[in-house]
Amino acid sequence: MTPSLEDFRTEAAQFLAASGLPRRPEDDTVVWGVGELDVSVFHNLSREAEAALIDELKSWQRRKFEAGFGAITWEEAYGGRGLPVAYLDAFDELESRYQLPRPHETFSVTQHLIAPTVRLLGTDAMKKELVPAFLRGEQMCCQLFSEPSAGSDLAALGTRAVREGDEWVINGQKVWSSGAQFAEWGELLCRSDPAVPKHAGMTAFMIPMDWPGVEIRPLRQMSGGTSFNEVFLTDVRLPDSYRIGAPGDGWKVALTTLGFERQASSNNAHVGGSWRQLLAAAQWAGVLDDPFVRQDLARAVVSERLGLVATARDEKARDNGEPMGAIGSVRMMQWVGRMLDVTAAARRILDHRLVVDSGEWGTFVWGDHVLGVPGYRIAGGSDEIQRNIIAERYLGMPAEPRGDRSTPWKETQR
């Protein structure tokens, strides 16, 4: 029996009140010098600290799942409650009043990208084994898509998968695989038929990250952390039962996951700093009378407000059953634009304090933001890719010429 939304809210509020989580202060004004300021875009943590953060997130997800709040809109077959999305919105609003573990991309990829992809396109056995484990927070996933020569042009990838009976022999390299060192599973995209055009010759798999022949090497980012990884696959023998979709349907699987990714990215909270934090920095630095600083702050405020308007519009469209489609690319570019506005203001306000670690509270830490933001102009498809999607699928403009669309992959220049 479906509870009323009011009864559900009461149930959720009771669960959260008994969780032991501290409440967020109702006043969100930033007090300079109080607490810890984290405005990073990507984690700048030691491996041990990052693993501990993921364990916190997994623990909280398990508690929510066991209490009936970890998969609110998912089917009962996966341990969910099958409730309308309005119930999820209600829980998220109540949960936002508490201080939660900081988000981590591996957790988001698992819950919002790969779990729904497997639900839509995985085998029955895969759905039964993996989806509940992902939703409970027991196991984490990463994407194994991009390669050194196939980033924005993902369809150019060259990691080979050759079928031998009931197995696939896989060789190749992936890169920029966020959280691979902490993931139990990866969603892997391979070239299975080089004799057909690039979009047609791919096959997708789920692969255990501790499988023989899989090697993970963390990459040190310029912002300090090691969230990204290289993954090398050497003579990996993967059972055909781990395949997602039919052979050759890998591009369809990839587009499904990327669609979830753009939607999730467009709904991101204000990662990497807010205008309130910038205002506190400007007040401390004594630069509020600078007209250029005031302009930068105004842009940051307007960008943030427009983000809230966009979220409200998208929620209304979702409630009306309208698919996000190419709007996901619009929202992603708007979100990146908001972060760039924050970057511009931080650089002007703090000036040399961004590059000199003087020990002053709230200053040098903004370097993590400035060095991290460019990464999100690439993640999930570069700015240029997003603009193409908007132009072709939203505005209906002619597609740009693509000479290799009908050329067999093995004959293309790489």
Brief synopsis:
This protein has 414 residues and is an alpha+beta fold.
Bin the strand percentage: 5-15%
Fourth CATH level, the homologous superfamily of the largest domain? Butyryl-CoA Dehydrogenase, subunit A, domain 3
Gyration radius, rounded: 22 Å
Residue windows where pLDDT falls under 50 for at least 5 positions: none
Descriptive notes:
- The structure is a single chain.
- The protein has 414 residues and is an alpha+beta fold.
- Helix content is 42%, strand content 12%.
- Strand 2 (160-164) and strand 3 form a beta hairpin.
Considering the chains and any ligands shown, give keywords for the structure.
globular; 4-stranded mixed β-sheet; Butyryl-CoA Dehydrogenase, subunit A, domain 3; Butyryl-Coa Dehydrogenase, subunit A, domain 1; Butyryl-CoA Dehydrogenase, subunit A, domain 2; 414 residues
SSE inventory with pairings:
Blueprint: H1 5-17, H2 47-67, H3 85-95, H4 105-121, H5 124-136, E1 141-144, E2 160-164, E3 167-175, E4 185-191, E5 202-208, E6 214-218, E7 229-239, E8 243-244, H6 250-266, H7 275-285, H8 291-319, H9 327-350, H10 366-372, H11 383-394
Parallel strand pairs: 1-4
Antiparallel strand pairs: 2-3, 3-7, 4-5, 5-8, 6-7
